[in-house]
Backbone:
């Protein structure tokens, strides 16, 4: 219509149309920003929840009360049951060792919310993101991802955690020495590969997707204490491997899972299915009812997800191992860790395992690449030429790893994903740890309420069924593959598209 008026009335109409267009455009943008700001404001009631009534944030529910995490966990379990819901964390990345093994999820932090991509790590107990003080943090990371530095001052809901607060006392194992009012609670997170993260704790609103129907979610949020990373080292500050931070799903009360569970937003159980073929996969918090998963008990009084391995089978041949090889020194059990790419085995297991596998192809010319990968040339199907490896655990649970999973192509050769932990540093020497190489293409269930863990082979590009604890209904949760290049929120994408359309109509 505007184009017709401009043609009919000449220059006068053109000036009038431009003025109207400018006014409409400014009004549209103002309304869009207002809506975005309004929907980003935190409230005591989470309107994204349905079926479970209102969900209150920690800061509102326990305002003015000095509550420890352990106290909140025990608070009114019946009331918590009315608020339990499933959470769908969109997952991206790949676990292939030759492609920089990283699985990561997208979460929103702050008010207004900004997106952050964090590596999913079941071997870590805290969540942290790179902060504004990190002057040496890379600006770009995994696959050219534009990284974001979190600034507590930019969030209306961000606040510092002081060293005298109960959270800091608990995570420090007691009162912090030389602590005085308004002094920040510091953290140091060390990882098995020698990298570390240093910083201080903050508290802010974390946005996530609550399961609301089959393959449907609604926005939800919760107040979470997490690390503000001021300095990183090792792979954490490498531009090829860096992300915005790490999302720790460990067992302790400091993890995001434990904090959300302590306020009744979720059950203390989660599952992941890492797609080793297509990348991405499924990561969900809640009660998985399908597929059915057999479980084994978690080893008690250990900091990680440790289980008792009982035997190793290559093809149909059991390795001649004694029971004590699975508990060397004070390292009890086998660690299940999604934050590690490869699989680490004590020397007494690694050597007979590799020897037995190689006996299937006696004429291979072995080479060691980069001082860590044992490799060889092989032109035929590895699944036809090499045996599967099956790990056996307590309660008759087994985990089978196929040649296509423990062998990976690298620089024109096939290389073993098994690593000899007897050659590692003192802290990790002779540990038994199974990472993404072994966990890929399997649904892995972590049930902290019943202190068990289990898994089953599964198509990680399909979907699982999650139970709604409020209504009793069951919903499908599907697979995701996040593109690291995409960072615009849905709201701003819509604003951009509508603005472009409006400008197009005005100009042409």
Residues:
């Amino acid at each position: 219509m505007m184009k017709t008026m401009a043609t009919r009335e000449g220059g006068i109409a053109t000036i009038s149309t431009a003025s109207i267009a400018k006014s409409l455009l400014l009004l549209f943008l103002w309304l869009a920003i207002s809506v975005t700001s309004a929907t980003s404001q935190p409230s005591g009631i989470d309107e994204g929840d349905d079926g479970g009534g209102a969900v209150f944030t920690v800061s509102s529910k326990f305002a003015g009360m000095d509550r420890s995490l352990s106290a909140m966990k025990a608070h009114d379990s019946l009331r918590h049951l009315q608020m339990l819901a499933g959470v769908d964390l969109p997952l991206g990345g790949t676990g292939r060792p030759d492609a920089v093994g990283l699985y990561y999820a997208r979460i929103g932090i702050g008010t207004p919310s900004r997106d952050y991509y964090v590596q999913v790590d079941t071997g870590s107990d805290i969540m942290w993101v790179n902060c504004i003080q990190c002057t040496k943090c890379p600006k770009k990371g995994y696959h050219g991802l534009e990284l974001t530095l979190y600034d507590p001052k930019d969030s209306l809901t961000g606040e510092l955690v002081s060293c005298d607060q109960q959270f800091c006392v608990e995570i420090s194992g007691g009162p912090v020495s030389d602590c005085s009012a308004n002094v920040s609670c510091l953290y140091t997170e060390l990882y098995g590969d020698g990298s570390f993260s240093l910083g201080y704790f903050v508290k802010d609103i974390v946005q996530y997707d609550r399961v609301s129907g089959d393959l449907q979610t609604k926005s939800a949020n919760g107040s979470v204490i997490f690390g503000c990373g001021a300095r990183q080292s090792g792979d954490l500050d490498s531009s090829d491997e860096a992300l915005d931070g790490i999302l720790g799903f460990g067992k302790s009360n400091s993890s995001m899972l434990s904090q959300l569970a302590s306020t009744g937003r979720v059950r203390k159980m989660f599952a992941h299915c890492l797609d080793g073929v297509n990348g991405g996969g499924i990561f969900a918090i809640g009660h998985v009812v399908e597929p059915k998963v057999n479980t084994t008990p978690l080893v008690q009084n250990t900091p990680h997800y440790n289980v008792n391995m009982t035997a190793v089978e290559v093809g149909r041949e059991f390795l001649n191992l004694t029971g004590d090889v699975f508990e060397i020194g004070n390292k009890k059990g086998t660690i299940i860790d999604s934050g590690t790419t490869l699989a680490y085995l004590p020397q007494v297991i690694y050597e007979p395992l590799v020897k037995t596998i190689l006996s299937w192809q006696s004429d291979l010319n072995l080479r060691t690449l980069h001082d860590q990968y044992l490799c060889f040339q092989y032109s035929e199907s590895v699944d036809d030429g090499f045996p599967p490896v099956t790990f056996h655990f307590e309660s008759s649970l087994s985990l089978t790893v196929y040649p296509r999973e423990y062998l990976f192509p690298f620089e024109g050769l096939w290389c073993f994903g098994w690593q000899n932990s007897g050659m590692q540093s003192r802290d990790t020497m002779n540990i038994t740890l199974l990472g993404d190489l072994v966990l890929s293409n399997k649904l892995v269930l972590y049930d902290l309420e019943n202190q068990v863990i289990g898994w089953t082979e599964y198509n990680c590009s399909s979907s699982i069924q999650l139970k709604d604890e409020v209504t009793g209904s069951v919903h499908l949760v599907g697979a995701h593959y996040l593109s690291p290049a995409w960072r615009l929120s849905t709201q701003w994408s819509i604003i951009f598209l509508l603005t472009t359309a409006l400008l197009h109509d005005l100009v042409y």
